[in-house]
Specification:
With 413 residues, the protein is mainly alpha-helical. The protein has a two-stranded antiparallel ribbon. It has a two-stranded antiparallel sheet with strand order 3-4. Helix 4 crosses helix 11. The chain has one domain (3-408). It contains 19 helices and four strands. It is globular and about 60 Å long.
Length: 413
Amino acid sequence: MTRSSAGFPVAGVLAFGAAVAAYATIVSAHPHDLWLMSDLRVYRWGGLLARHSDRLYDARIDGFAFTYAPIAAVIFAGLSVLPMAALRWLMTLAGLVSLVASVWFAWRTLGHRRGPVALGAVLLVAAAALWTEPVQKTLWFGQVNLILMALVLADLRQGDGRRWKGVGIGLATGVKFTPGIFIAYLVLTRRYRAAAVATATCLLTVAVGFAVLPHESWEFWGRRLFMAPDRVGPVDWVGNQSLDGALVRCLGGEQVARPYWLIASLVVGVCGLALAAGESRRGRELNGIVTCALTGLLVSPISWSHHWVWIVPALALVAHRMVGPLRRTWPWIVGGVVLEALFGAWFHAVSGLPALPQGLIRTVPFGAHREDRWHGTQLVIGNLYVLVASVVLVALLVLAVRRRSAAVRVPVA
């Protein structure tokens, strides 16, 4: 370890420690806003219903319904024996550990060796990622997004020859459908065994759900509750940063937007997955993973802002590009600052709450379908995550076309 890199471990520990301390200070000052963990309450409540009732998908708590697959209720049933106070601490700790683990898996995927320097760099990136809105909202709600992302990244980090590669993606898909796009990614990158393992694991979670909760499983799969995105909340709400949500807000209604969403999702899905597979084939695996994740977030009917925790490996990717001479890295430094600013958790007040860490997307009027009356810059700010991801995919598409043109160009004699 050289002198120039000896400060990385210390800087990383100090930066991440300061970020966590600042977060803990804000939470302790506003426990009724940041420590209630509404989604975690629903998880625990779903676990209790799985143990004591067969009305898992009919009942509501504080206006919220349990929307996950039955296997999730089976998992939460075990956690529901713990009091809510203990679960808050457990979920927060699990989220922070998963945040650091996700950056670590991303950093290792980029080819960096283990060691103090790598750990310092990982903690520096994790400190920046902690103060993004998707990560803050995941911790705020007590969501599982960081845990599932770490599971997917750990799975993809394995060598292609590993027998159990795909299990993590299959488990994540069984709990929450959105990671299922990585099964398609495995197929397109010709990792057929891993794709088969992931599919089999996901089907196994369905089978376990039927075995343990047969009535609830028939309700969920038979009544196709998994195909009703409106059960999880209004599609036009600002928190839904998907193509569907953006089109509904721009066009003023779900029925009007539906045909445009179907076409846009098909185009983005095909192009996004093709780009992701192309990045992987060129040896840029993390590029492919992030591209695949962005594609899934865009085409999903519902992509709440806390689903966008995939900003974490994106920040690791940008940080990786910052290593080198300044004349080559300054565009990436600027890009990292812009990315952190656009997805950052900025302090401002919304909906009568005190000034708390919020995303820029919540600086426009929202709630009670006010999103349908946005105009001008409100449409840009309120659909910010969708626009950023769309710009990234278009840029990658342009680069891919230019590479293809350069490859087939015949030199003039």
